[in-house]
Specification:
By secondary structure, this protein is mostly helical. It contains nine helices and four strands.
Length: 311
């Protein structure tokens, strides 16, 4: 797995099961742990790792053009339509009130949305088709087969649609080349062509699978992923950090309540839980920095043993 700058990404080379478990854990924490410190830590980790994978420009563009305006809109909507809370700020002419709790809770929910969107930048880069099929293929073979067929069929469908559209354009029968009365007829013709092609492709695929013996015996699965020692160490780190977060949550260190009043946990476990969430969020970035610091330069020459030296 390579980053946007062409460097090696150790977390991207980890076992797909470890990657899937990591993203499930980090998304679950950001969705259910509404403590502000935990959300800030998760957002920092997501932004840094997204910048490593896609570049700072992509992350900054996503934050400035979509996430931050979306957070403002989400907060305003929550403030206007939810009027719970005890800290009254403004009373409108309609009788509804704007409370501090509604504003803060809107910001927190917007932060959860922002964290999720930032983490999906990394998920889209790392969780490729072969990894998804591998994860589903052994435990859920029918779903794995369906997903692999879908991943193959969708690009073929788009390619065939472009071919049909180009052919219609060449004969002067494209949608944009006829009057408004004939547009429906042309569109229905293209739809009929695509439906016929999809059915023929499905029948051909089924015949091909049957001729290769699908469904006649015990199914085997090919996998190019192997669970290595580094994956075991990474799994242990995930278990320890996740355990610290759950213990902190249980000890009310990461407790947060916004209705009817704002109550946020502040004790020693808050610090431990925040550091654990920050460690989880920064784990892929720390692995990347560690590999960069210990990377062998490209121009480094291997030293031969003394018995290979020339006299």
């Amino acid at each position: 797995m390579k980053t946007v700058h062409g460097h090696r990404d150790p977390f991207g080379e980890a076992h797909p099961l470890i990657q899937a478990a990591y993203f499930i854990i980090i998304l679950g924490l950001t969705a259910f742990c509404l403590h502000p410190l935990a959300l800030v830590a998760a957002l920092i980790g997501a932004a840094i790792y997204g910048a490593i994978l896609r570049g700072w420009r992509h992350v900054a563009k996503l934050l400035l053009t979509f996430i931050l305006p979306g957070m403002v809109v989400f907060t305003l909507i929550n403030m206007c339509f939810n009027h719970y809370g005890q800290t009254l700020l403004v009373t409108l002419n309609s009788g509804n009130s704007i409370t501090l709790e509604a504003i803060v809770y809107g910001l927190v929910l917007a932060g959860v949305l922002a964290c999720g969107l930032c983490w999906f930048v990394a998920i889209n880069q790392l969780m490729t088709r072969d990894k998804i099929v591998y994860l589903c293929g052994r435990m859920l073979p029918a779903i794995g087969l369906l997903m692999s067929l879908t991943f193959r069929f969708v690009p073929l469908l788009g390619r065939q649609f472009r071919a049909v559209k180009n052919a219609q354009t060449g004969t002067g029968n494209a949608v944009g080349q006829v009057n408004w009365r004939q547009k429906f007829h042309v569109a229905a013709n293209i739809f009929s062509i695509m439906t016929t092609w999809a059915l023929e492709t499905a029948v051909t695929t089924a015949d091909s699978m049957r001729s290769r013996g699908y469904g006649t015996g015990h199914r085997t699965a090919y996998a190019r992923f192997h669970f290595r020692t580094s994956d075991r160490i990474l799994a242990a780190v995930l278990i320890v950090l996740t355990g610290l977060v759950l213990i902190s949550w249980r000890m009310h260190g990461l407790f947060a309540q916004y209705n009817p009043q704002i109550i946020i946990g502040r004790n020693l476990w808050t610090l431990i839980g925040t550091l654990a969430v920050l460690g989880l969020a920064l784990l892929p970035s720390i692995m990347y920095v560690w590999s960069r610091l210990h990377q062998v330069p490209d121009n480094a020459k291997a030293e031969l043993p003394p018995y290979f030296a020339r006299n």
